[in-house]
Amino acid sequence: MDSRLRIWLAALLVVTALTACGGPKVPETPQLPPAAPVTEAPSPAPEAPGAVPEPLPYQPVILEPESVELLDEEGPGKLYRAGELLVCVLEGTHREMGYQHGRLLADRIRHITKEGYLQRAVFDNGYSLEYAVEQSTRMARHFPPEYLDEINGILDGLAAAGVTGVTYDELLIAACVAELLHHAPGAAPGCSNFAVFGQWTPDGRLLHGRNLDWTTGKGAQEDAVTFIWRPEGGVPFMMLAYAGVIGGVSGMNASQITLGEMTVSSPEESFDGIPLQIIMRMALEKAATLDEAVGIIQRGPRTLGWNFVIGDGKIPDARALEVDRNTVDVFTPGDPHETPDMGHQTLPDAIRRTNHPCGEIQQRKVVKAHGAEIGLDGSDWDAAKPVVKAFLAQQNTFHRYQWLGEQIQTRPRAIDVPAALGLLSNGPVAANNTLHSFVFDPAGQVAYIANAAVAPPATAWKTVYTKLDLSQWF
């Protein structure tokens, strides 16, 4: 393949790695457009299902613990062992929750910052402390102030536990690490999300499945924690995260909002915005409805390119968002602007996304920015589409998107929790670098969670899914 074509396709299909010193190309203080409305679109009828599909070859293991074991407590903060999960419940003001976090997880916070994931993934990969602090500080200017107070609370809790040496800068970097490592050096990003309800589940309830395909080799799973925040004046919520981090990339709240993300490249990116883990936390902590969650991400300010799947078990309904610094493209189930001419097939009562844009807004941006590298006129979208479609069809991100759609359509009224877990652990969706995997049942206030194995490292979906009943905290 011509080298210029490879460069362009890498940018288009989100396999561009950030170099240790460069970071993303950022525009200077771009103007945000008005928020896009959440509009309903007619849902086309699904294709008639054929014969009942054969059972998927890999059947995940579900562990239902009879009880949770209390390991430690600090005021209203509690640390539990639930099956294979470490569960940390934090309650009160943000400063108080930070203090509980630091005191209860002091040894793990020291480990992840000094010798664990933060050290291995950031500094051992050539990112300098000065660069990481500079970019994290740019993002921190956009944090809600109470979150900075929470970081200081963690430091107080660490001191109370007798752990010294962990710095404010290290905790700030941990909150911004998704931006710093937007694409792991030398690796293609991977993540898959789907939300199904209505005609696809036995009783119509919403189920949200998600694989975080990142890396199992840097040891983040060594300090994995399922956090449950009960903020004073906010919505109780849960996130799959890591010791010392005040946000996450997967979560659900007591108002039945579910949220997962996927990495995507965009030519319109900036570090002058709210980082991924924080804006996702804001959506869970502050949103009681689907529209409110979408609105928080629309208002931003945002940073880089991401896809989101957001569910609301109350309605039930779901949205896909394709975002970058400047725009948010919102998709409903059955949405006709999910570019069928590019091979995408929207479904009623379902949303799915992987690591490429399904909408024309983001597709055109990439072609305009990179088309000249292969001799295409970036302004001539009609001429570019056949080229884009041909190469997109060869990529793993498209195979995962397509496979999920095919599997969903063959399972009317049959996608229960075991079937949803099966979609995460079979076919092209099942990757060997899944850091965590979940199915959320928001109406039942239950999550099924698997983290990657530690010794030896192993992909999450091959371990055990622990059923976690959240009702006592929600």
Summarize the structure.
The chain has 474 residues and is of the alpha+beta class. The protein is 30% helix and 22% strand. The chain has one domain (1-20, 41-474): Penicillin V Acylase, Chain A.
Characterise this structure:
It is a single chain. The protein has helices at 3-12, 94-104, 106-114, 117-123, 129-140, 145-160, 168-175, 177-180, 276-286, 290-299, 360-370, 381-392, 396-409, 417-424, and strands at 61-63, 69-74, 77-82, 85-92, 190-196, 207-213, 224-231, 237-242, 250-253, 257-263, 306-312, 317-323, 328-331, 350-353, 434-441, 446-451, 464-469. With 474 residues, it is of the alpha+beta class. The relative contact order is 0.17.
Notable characteristics:
474 residues; ten-stranded mixed sheet; alpha+beta; single chain; 17 strands; disordered N terminus; Penicillin V Acylase, Chain A; seven-stranded mixed sheet
Biggest sheet, spatial arrangement of strands = 2-3-4-7-8-9-10-11-12-13
Mean pLDDT: 88
Q: Largest sheet, described in full?
A: 10 strands, mixed
Question: Strand share of the residues?
Answer: 15-25%
Give the strand tally.
17
Shape: globular
Give me the CATH architecture, please.
4-Layer Sandwich
Q: How many helical elements?
A: 14
Structurally, the number of domains stands at 1
Category by helix and strand content: alpha+beta
Supply Rg.
Answer: 21 Å
Query: What's the name of the CATH homologous superfamily?
Result: Penicillin V Acylase, Chain A
CATH class: Alpha Beta
Distance between the termini: 53 Å
**Helix content percent band:** 25-40%
Seen as an oligomer or otherwise, the chain set is: single chain
